[in-house]
């Protein structure tokens, strides 16, 4: 519990209207998309970096945890106050400070919703590619903290490829600017890159500088329908090997297709074992050439039907279907264990075969979809967490899947981070020394372990 006299000090720092200890407010900020929940002692909506600095200094003096929070859409429990404390909701950091069209960069606050930022940038003919499927509600601060990726990562990379500078309040309360506003810059260690993906454990991000690129002039979306799952997986390797780089290459298996169709009713091919959703972008003649090339490859690898979306509405419907998979899965069962493994692209057929074998042997419903173009498959084990025996079977399956992924040269998380839910598996991928070095870095930044404790290193 944070004592009343400390709460009074926090009210003086942030203004009492921005500090909440009512149970209903605390419940609202107690959970994220993992569907787990831990009640914070206090919820604060800071208005500027100075207030955060003072709160963190107080946290060091009075020894209470501070947990940064964006939209709470994280899939690994990064914003859960697992040891209680104060949840710092970044919603008031909601300004796009400047879009600099001469230098192709933007200065933006972390509470801005990613999709809103993209729309503003696109009005000026510019492009900010990182597009997590949560872009309509997740924030840039959360995206930076998790190094979010999305369908376009296959061509354009992930959040870390666009963040060039940050303002960060360190866990000790000091305020630091990292990085540059220039195309290049190599002065000292790259603290910006260290912060990106640090899951709110090394500092509170209060300002972000991102680079922008010109918006592609045209694009096309292709739907390829497969009677066999493996043929869809082999197509991904075929497209990669053909040297055509699509701007998105997404995959849905049969269960994902049925679930989304049941939810949206937009005419997805429910009879298919798998579909690929592929986007190409660029100058119109390149788009036409690449779309035709990809259509040929899909057919060569066993697609029974390949359609190029005729207009913007059918295109948007397909992408809406992709974004709706995650929420619609809960129709299958009340709980999902959601992993985001990534393998070298040539191993996609092997890992899907292995996952299906594990699902059958473990008698589990596993739904697969995701960013196949970069080898990132979202593996969703659908269970009812009230059935203990089923839960333990599911966690055994997770371990087996991770072992297979690592044996194939992959990684246990492509974009969701470690947080709480993946912390027990950290040492499957990292060496003891690797973990120790990371813990030393954490200690340098946060000697009293006040910022987002209990994350990443919870063995
Ligand atoms: C339907 C759905 C689809 C999704 N699709 C994708 C996807 O395609 N790709 C992907 O990468 N992720 C995806 N996610 C996961 C999630 O949306 C991302 O991790 C996103 O980046 C989290 O942003 P948020 O604002 O919700 O952050 P939160 O969940 O609030 O926080 C996430 C982490 O960031 C930290 N944090 C937040 N703000 C700050 C800050 N200002 N300073 C320091 N730390 C901070 C928190 O402490 C926490 O550790 C999806 C989630 C959902 C629910």
Description:
Helix 1 runs antiparallel to helix 3 (49-62), helix 8 (229-241) crosses helix 10 (284-300) and helix 8 packs antiparallel against helix 12. The model has no long low-confidence stretch (mean pLDDT 95). Among the domains are: 4-91, 2-Layer Sandwich (Uridine Diphospho-n-acetylenolpyruvylglucosamine Reductase, domain 2), CATH 3.30.43; 218-407, Vanillyl-alcohol Oxidase, Chain A, domain 3, CATH 3.40.462. The chain is an alpha+beta fold. Strands 15-12-14-13-17-18-16 form a seven-stranded antiparallel beta sheet, with helices on both faces. A five-stranded antiparallel beta sheet has the order 5-6-10-8-9. It has a four-stranded mixed beta sheet with strand order 1-2-4-3. The protein is globular, with a radius of gyration of 22 Å. The longest helix has 20 residues, at 388-407. It has helices at 4-14, 23-28, 49-62, 114-123, 140-146, 153-156, 191-195, 229-241, 254-264, 284-300, 312-328, 348-362, 388-407, 426-429, 432-445; strands spanning 19-20, 42-44, 66-69, 86-89, 96-100, 105-108, 126-127, 163-169, 175-179, 204-211, 213-214, 218-226, 248-253, 274-282, 305-308, 335-342, 365-371, 376-383. Bound molecules: flavin-adenine dinucleotide (FAD).
